Amino acid sequence: MKKGAIHILAASASLAAMACATPALAAAHKQPSNAELMKLLKDQAAKIDALEQQVQTLQAKQGEQAQAVAAATAARSQQAQTDAQVAAAAQDQRNQDVAALQAQVAQLTTRSKHDVKVSWNEGGPTFGSQDGHFSFHPKGRIVTDFSTTSGSSYPARNITGTEFRDLRLGAEGNIGKIGYNLDVDFAGNVVSVKEAYISYTTKLFGLNSKTYIGNSLNDRSIEGATELVGLPFAERNAVANVAVPQVGYFGLGLQERLGGKGWHISGAVKGGDNGDNDGTHNDSIAYFTRGHLNPILTKDAFIHLGAWGYWETLNAPVSINKTSAIATDFNGEVKVSASSIAGVKSDRGYGFEAGAGWHSFWAFGEYGQRTLMVPAGLDIDQKAWSVYGGVFLTGEKPGYSSRSGVLARPKVLHSITDGGLGAFELLGRYDKYDFTDAARGGEGNALTLGGNWYLNNFMDLKLNYIFWKTQNQVGAFPGDDTGHTLLLRGEIVW
């Protein structure tokens, strides 16, 4: 408030006071003295000064409050600016962290596609890229047998010895959808190529398709299409041995397979010389087909139904003198003779399969027949059937491929390498060999009891006891003969 205004206010107050005092004095009918008027003016002046001091004090407080409000407003503004700067800096840091993490993920993703990983699930190392585009598995197997035969009426059949039943080195793997496999066998001090092929996996008519080009195992019967080390018994059954074409278990050519989980069908065209043709003659040609179906396929059970057939055209009429080993591969004297059939131009074969598995139990039955076609329509049938099964005492499930309808090594639950006891399996099989359709064909049968101890997924011991009987009409051991063969096998597969 300005000073002039204060004085005007003071004069007004003084006049008002005098106006109020005059009636009072008039009422008293007394005239105030000069001293009383002076005293009254001094009192009023003092009151005016006090009022002016209060106004000044009030104005000072208002100024201080205004300054405090301005300072607080400025502080809040500064804090808001600081908070905004901190938030912006934090957001920038978060963006940088996210970008760094994204770069690391991209780097890890790129590295995972090209870096090599090593797996030891198959007994040996498998090298492969993280995305599965590339793999390489050096593989091999050592299969060693000890066998002894006794009880035969012919001393030459009662022999004991050891052999490398299978001795292989090779490699397998894939480059994208293209696979490859090579197996070279050194058993018997003879080098031979068993499997050597490339394959291509794709979709055909919306179905899973795999094409094989090269030398591969023929898809014929359950055990005929199963690798030796995948068999529960030491040797293949009578159906696989009797109803085998002249090309044998392997053939060089083209094979196509369609299928999925619980079924498959295959077709193949194979040459009869397994790549050994020296260019001086035609190959024998064989055409194969096989299929299987699992009408029941669950975690704990399956039913198997299958059938197969082949037709083989020989490059020239040949004489076939079929003899099938009925005991072990080592003892070549214990065989069933089919007698010699001359002038065979072609042959055909077919077979049927059925089987089932439930938890640790499994069983199969097979029938197979081979027909030799000779001049004048005098076709000769060679027949066989087999029934076999087993049970795991340690809870494993039977080794069986529902995609191919063949046998396989079981998955051991508690291997000795992990502190367990391994897997124990008991087996039984009956085989019948029938060549009696020929004029001098023989026949035979064999009962095999066995036990397997799978130490882990790639090592095992097999014990087979075989009680056999042969009735040959020709050869070095004619007539009825029986005997016992005991075989102990050690296998390691990687």
Secondary-structure blueprint of this entry?
Elements: H1 3-28, H2 34-114, E1 116-119, E2 126-129, E3 134-150, E4 160-175, E5 178-185, E6 192-204, E7 207-217, H3 238-242, E8 250-260, E9 263-271, E10 285-297, E11 301-325, E12 335-358, E13 361-373, E14 380-392, E15 400-401, E16 406-407, E17 423-434, E18 443-454, E19 459-472, E20 479-493
Antiparallel strand pairs: 1-2, 2-3, 3-4, 3-20, 4-5, 5-6, 6-7, 7-8, 8-9, 9-10, 10-11, 11-12, 12-13, 13-14, 14-17, 15-16, 17-18, 18-19, 19-20
How would you describe what is shown here?
- With 494 residues, this protein is α+β, with helices and mostly antiparallel strands.
- It folds into two domains: 3-90, no CATH class; 124-493, Porin (Beta Barrel), CATH 2.40.160.
- 23% of the residues lie in helices and 48% in strands.
- It has helices spanning 3-28, 34-114, 238-242; strands at 116-119, 126-129, 134-150, 160-175, 178-185, 192-204, 207-217, 250-260, 263-271, 285-297, 301-325, 335-358, 361-373, 380-392, 400-401, 406-407, 423-434, 443-454, 459-472, 479-493.
- The strands form two sheets. The protein has a 16-stranded antiparallel barrel. It has a two-stranded antiparallel ribbon with strand order 15-16.
- Helix 1 runs antiparallel to helix 2 (34-114).
- The model is unreliable at 1-29 (pLDDT under 50).
What's the gist of this structure?
The chain is 23% helix and 48% strand. It has three helices and 20 strands.
Q: Tell me what portion of residues adopts beta-strand conformation.
A: over 45%
SS-based class: alpha+beta
Strand order of the largest sheet: 3-4-5-6-7-8-9-10-11-12-13-14-17-18-19-20
User: Would you report the number of β strands?
Assistant: 20
Approximately how much helix is present in the residues? 10-25%
Instruction: Note poorly predicted spans.
Output: 1-29
CATH topology of the largest domain: Porin
Separation of the first and last Cα atoms = 108 Å
Domain count: the total is: 2
N-to-C series of helices and strands: HHEEEEEEEHEEEEEEEEEEEEE
Identify the overall geometry.
rod-shaped
CATH architecture group name of the largest domain: Beta Barrel
